């Protein structure tokens, strides 16, 4: 019997990417909720795993995006029941918030390829292991999450200290985008052009394109190792 996976999506262009490809390769069921198109967050947690993707909204914009409130309830329930949950970028921030930590503006926006390093706890973690102790990841965020009381910091970086966390045994949040495909990266560059223009002189778009060509093959291998560790734990 295959696993039943809930995937919560906040904006059309930030999809499941490599994670979705991996789940499909296993023949596992994906209940994808397109929250930006009016799909609802399920009231009951009848799933083996939960995946919460990224998005341009802030975790505190619940009045503007009412589904964020429903997600908060769902994550709290998942933490209580220890249901394997993976949050990416906004998803990681929602996990941290639901677990009692603050989400704040980071000192700078991280957009592009940046190096992260595992903490001692990260090196011992069964889901993070096997992807290297220090490696480049793809980022696109302006906010950062705190580490809740029942949370463990798994990875860190120079410009944004908190890069990966675990809450309890099975709830993981990654600030970086482990799910991106090459195509997604180029689509984001086109779609979020206004944001990139506002950061001219700080963010080098051509460097992002070159780094993507250089880094992507190894990054995809790491992403698939991570998926295997997380979904087959």
Commentary on this structure:
- The protein has 233 residues and is an alpha/beta fold.
- It has one domain: Rossmann fold (3-Layer(aba) Sandwich).
- It has helices at 17-25, 67-81, 90-98, 120-124, 182-191, 193-198, 205-231; strands spanning 4-9, 29-34, 49-52, 85-88, 103-118, 134-145, 151-156, 164-167, 171-174.
- It has a 9-stranded mixed beta sheet with strand order 2-1-3-4-9-8-7-5-6, with helices on both faces.
- The mean pLDDT is 96.
Oligomer category: single chain
Which class best fits the helix and strand makeup?
alpha/beta
Order of adjacent strands in the largest pleated sheet = 2-1-3-4-9-8-7-5-6
Q: Quote the beta fraction.
A: 25-35%
What is the share of helical residues? Answer: 25-40%
* Tally of separate helices: 7
Largest sheet composition? 9 strands, mixed
Distance between the termini: 16 Å
* CATH homologous group name: Class I glutamine amidotransferase (GATase) domain
What is the H/E order? EHEEHEHEHEEEEHHH
List the SSEs and their pairings:
Layout: E1 4-9, H1 17-25, E2 29-34, E3 49-52, H2 67-81, E4 85-88, H3 90-98, E5 103-118, H4 120-124, E6 134-145, E7 151-156, E8 164-167, E9 171-174, H5 182-191, H6 193-198, H7 205-231
Helix pairs in contact: 2-3, 5-7
